[in-house]
Amino acid sequence: MANEWFETVAEAQRRAKKRLPKSVYGALIAGSEKGLSANGNLSAFDQLGFAPHMCGLSQTREMSTTVMGQNLSMPVMISPTGVQAVHPEGEVAIARAAANRGIPMGLSSFASRSIEDVAAVNNSTFFQIYWCGDKDTLLQRMERARAAGAKGIIVTLDWSFSNGRDWGSPWIPEKINLKAAIKLAPEVVVKPGWLWAFAKTGKLPDLSAPNMAKPGEKAPTFFGAYYEWMQTPLPTWEDLAWLRKEWGGPFMVKGVCRVDDAKRIVDLGATTLSVSNHGGNNLDGTPAPIRCLSAIADAVGHDIEVVLDGGIRRGSDVVKALALGARAVMIGRAYLWGLAANGTAGVENVLDLLRGGIDSALLGMGKSNISELSADDIVIPRDFLCALGTK
Ligand SMILES: Cc1cc2nc3c(=O)[nH]c(=O)nc-3n(C[C@H](O)[C@H](O)[C@H](O)COP(=O)(O)O)c2cc1C
After folding, report:
1. 81 FRET partner, CA 20 to 30 A, in 16, 158, 180, 254?
2. Would residue 302 show up in a list of annotated catalytic residues for this protein?
3. Which atom of ligand 1 is nearest to the CA of 79?
């Protein structure tokens, strides 16, 4: 078998594109409308530079930290993604890779594998919920996650409507039945590696969302869960405070880009907030999180853990985010490309690349510990930073 190891996340993405059926790959690319935010998340990191030293560099570099009471061997966590049919093991493969590399797993409530299966392989698992269904249903899902061993809750609030895409959205069937199989056949037969991976397990992708099942009932389809979410009235700040109180333990609010919202999240008593625009999948034109980060970290970084997600593809991106005030980052597509390319080993490969890249950037800048990073280490173009919600 050819060497499955890849040298960068970009190469993992190329292999994912080659291996996955067009619709599955398209679902991972995601983005909304013109793709301004999805592309901007990536290009923003390219605009930041480093101010390296060349002598007196540190022989050793320390990059461990903690988030939501969990130990991280490096300042990276798995961001929840509700995607299906990438790999037969799905989120279990991702969670195992994360556990093997000493980092927490964020599991989407729209994921293809259950919180019980995932928490069994990674004992630093956070369960992500949307404001979806009535309060009894939300409580039931949280209690199920708690019973399964979830160490914290991630509440995602930056996905608020569905969007068209100028490049077209993939067709995703309600479930894989004969009609769907015939329709998908032309794109699937040209991807024998993907097909074989599923064939070996004797199961087709079932496109259900097991964490959204009502007690004693069958898991709804992904679209059934999506429909429930679309029918649910949008949450108020009081609803969010209620959720925070009911959970009680470590609590992250994901999807913040404004300082005024960040302050309200501190008032709720949340443990952590994630500066995020949902990977550019919601309101197109929302600035890249890395642009919004330092204003938020400066305003509330002493009162709450601030993490960032969006656009992280290499270790140097992680270091840029830390220098601008993040305690850690979360990754989405990067691990999905690794999963598609080579299962658990592919996700480990991605995590190893990030670790190596963080280490190299720390080395180049003469740091012995991530805690020594500051904005002075970064070349920041004029007008790069956005302080949203400060007036
Ligand atoms: C295909 C896809 C599905 C996602 N599904 C979820 C989800 O179910 N819950 C959630 O909180 N975030 C979801 N996200 C957002 C990610 O958690 C994260 O914010 C984003 O991927 C970060 O950007 P990156 O992909 O550039 O790393 C999804 C993102 C993608 C690309």
Report:
1. 180
2. no
3. 17
CA 310 – ligand 1 centroid, Å: 8
SS3 content of the chain, % helix, strand, coil (to 5): 45, 15, 40
Expressed in angstroms and rounded, the spacing between residue 30 Cα and the centre of ligand 1 is 9
Q: Output the tens digit of pLDDT for each of the chain's 391 residues.
A: 457 999 999 999 999 999 999 999 999 999 999 999 999 999 999 999 999 999 999 999 999 999 999 999 999 999 999 988 899 999 999 999 999 999 999 999 999 999 999 999 999 999 999 999 999 999 999 999 999 999 999 999 988 777 899 999 988 888 888 888 888 889 999 999 998 999 999 988 888 999 999 999 999 998 899 999 999 999 999 999 999 999 999 999 999 999 999 999 999 999 999 999 999 999 999 999 999 999 999 999 999 999 999 999 999 999 999 999 999 999 999 999 999 999 999 999 999 999 999 999 999 999 999 999 999 999 999 999 999 999 8
What is the whole-number distance in angstroms between the Cα of residue 79 and the centre of ligand 1?
Answer: 6
pTM: 0.97
Residues lining ligand 1, judged by CB closer than 6 Å? 27-28, 30, 41, 79-83, 108, 110, 128, 156, 254, 276, 278-279, 281, 309-312, 331-334
- The neighbour count for residue 222, using CB atoms within 10 Å, is 24
Q: Which atom of ligand 1 is nearest to the CA of 156?
A: 11
Work out whether the CA dihedral 301, 304, 309, 313 comes out positive or negative.
positive
Nearest atom, ligand 1, residue 128 CA: 11
Provide the 8-state DSSP code for 285.
Answer: T
